[in-house]
Amino acid sequence: MGSWKKEDGNCEWIHGPVIVGAGPSGLAVSACLKQNGVPFLILERSNCIASLWQEKTYHRLKLHLPSQFCQLPFLSFPEDFPKYPTKHQFISYMESYATYFSIQPRFKQTVERAEFDGFWRVRTQDFEYFSRWLIVATGENAEPVVPEIQGIENFQGPVIHTSVYKSGSEFRNQRVLVVGCGNSGMEVSLDLCRYNATPHMVVRNSIHILPREVLGISTFAIAMASGGRKLGPIELKNATGKTPVLDVGALSQIKSGKIKVTEGVTEITKNGAKFMDGQGKEFDSIILATGYKSNVSNWLKDTGFFTKDGMPKTTFPNGWRGENGLYAVGFTRRGLVGTSWDAVNIAGDIADRWRIINGGKNSCGSKIFFKDRQEK
């Protein structure tokens, strides 16, 4: 939409912004642009929206926060959804969201390089796009983090990252080393217990474990209502740099001994692992619950806006706008609440510039408008 193609067919001028990534962040900013009458093009390396959720999450995953804190702008969850929607419910919500706002990403377009040269040049494996604006929507969790562990290449059993873990049924009755004790490590360990596996979870440093709810009220909601006292998951994450664990049952399994807790790994052997306390244990499988990272530094030419780790140097709430028409959505470390904040701000800023360029009119020739929430 809103583009011009050269005759050779391998490059295209986009009148609105180019958005990289069709996950929740890309969808949110697309909807906000749509509401402002600004055309856009959204590029996605996979063949579906929200590919992380659809392709790299385990079956039992549910949202860690109540649904009202996980909605994208201008469209609520269905009324019959539970307080904590399942993975499949959240995917269906995002698919409905894309349909509702007529968001049509261009799939199988992997951005290999983007740079500013008077305008933005965005190159994929087989095409090049040009635009005044570039919105980075690949988020904090674009690529799995795979740590280097001495000897891991010698292990004779399977070694997988949680990005390919689906269910504990594949590890029934096994001794499993789970490297990582964040939300993924805890939930995978809990899932393994349900299939009579024996998970040994590696805990190298202290971790913050919060109950998901207190007297039926979510910890996150309490933190929001308290005016940001440092007791909620986001406050702890910002203060320590680590995501706290919202307990959904793993803690009781640790107390009962069904989930074993071990010290840091010093070496992986062909049939097990050695630990910092000098002990060694045998394992059938290893699961790396070591999280994800940004991949922006792999493809965005240095702009001074992002760190070498692919995160905006300016923190929330001002990390959504760079220079020369560069924007970032989904890097706030505040979940989907932060994503929505970014999306609304970015769309409003671009709409103002679009209005100047186009004499106060949107792409359809009418005045810029902003629909009321849930207008149908």
TrEMBL record:
<protein>
    <recommendedName>
        <fullName>indole-3-pyruvate monooxygenase</fullName>
        <ecNumber>1.14.13.168</ecNumber>
    </recommendedName>
</protein>
<dbReference type="InterPro" id="IPR050982">
    <property type="entry name" value="Auxin_biosynth/cation_transpt"/>
</dbReference>
<comment type="similarity">
    <text>Belongs to the FMO family.</text>
</comment>
<dbReference type="InterPro" id="IPR036188">
    <property type="entry name" value="FAD/NAD-bd_sf"/>
</dbReference>
<keyword id="KW-0521">NADP</keyword>
<keyword id="KW-0503">Monooxygenase</keyword>
<comment type="pathway">
    <text>Plant hormone metabolism; auxin biosynthesis.</text>
</comment>
<dbReference type="GO" id="GO:0009851">
    <property type="term" value="P:auxin biosynthetic process"/>
</dbReference>
<keyword id="KW-0274">FAD</keyword>
<keyword id="KW-0560">Oxidoreductase</keyword>
<keyword id="KW-0073">Auxin biosynthesis</keyword>
<keyword id="KW-0285">Flavoprotein</keyword>
<dbReference type="GO" id="GO:0103075">
    <property type="term" value="F:indole-3-pyruvate monooxygenase activity"/>
</dbReference>
<dbReference type="Pfam" id="PF13738">
    <property type="entry name" value="Pyr_redox_3"/>
</dbReference>
